[in-house]
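Consider the tokenized backbone below.
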């Protein structure tokens, strides 16, 4: 029996995830962004996070070659930004409200949380590369609801308090 990749992807979609935009820059290109739902914490001491990129992506070389990256956790108002940066292409940040960071790659101006990371390690993971970053700086807002991805679509989450 052949492994059903589409059914596997649909099954993975049953796990709701947050959505983030990762930004990085290289010497020969302006900063670029990519939407991910693979962002996760790894360790508190040292402070490490990870995310994954398809090794066949036209942006893979920029992100895997960068010395660091910035993670912007999206809020419920960021559907359009997420959709734009999830598409194939150049992933220009030109029309997106950004703020500078000390590390270099910009952050979304109104993100729920921002993590500025130095590259700690890269690991092969099937058809993806796992990027681990050491968090050098971070900031967050105490209010707002996250953008959530579930079964191939966007939604929101409001905690019950």
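A designed sequence for it:
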């Amino acid at each position: 029996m052949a492994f059903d990749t589409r059914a596997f992807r649909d099954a993975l979609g049953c796990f709701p995830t947050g959505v983030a935009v990762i930004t990085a820059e290289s010497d020969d290109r302006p900063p670029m962004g990519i939407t991910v739902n693979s962002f996760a914490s790894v360790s508190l001491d040292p402070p490490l996070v990870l995310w994954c990129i398809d090794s066949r992506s036209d942006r893979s070389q920029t992100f895997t070659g960068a010395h660091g990256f910035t993670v912007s956790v999206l809020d419920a108002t960021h559907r359009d930004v997420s959709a734009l940066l999830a598409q194939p292409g150049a992933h220009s940040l030109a029309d997106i409200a950004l703020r500078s960071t000390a590390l270099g790659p910009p952050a979304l101006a109104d993100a729920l949380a921002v993590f500025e990371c130095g590259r700690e390690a890269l690991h092969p993971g099937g058809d993806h590369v796992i990027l681990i970053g050491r968090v050098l700086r971070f900031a967050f807002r105490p209010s707002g609801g996250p953008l959530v991805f579930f079964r191939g679509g966007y939604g929101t989450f409001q905690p019950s308090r």
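The CA atoms of residues 41 and 90 lie 28 Å apart.
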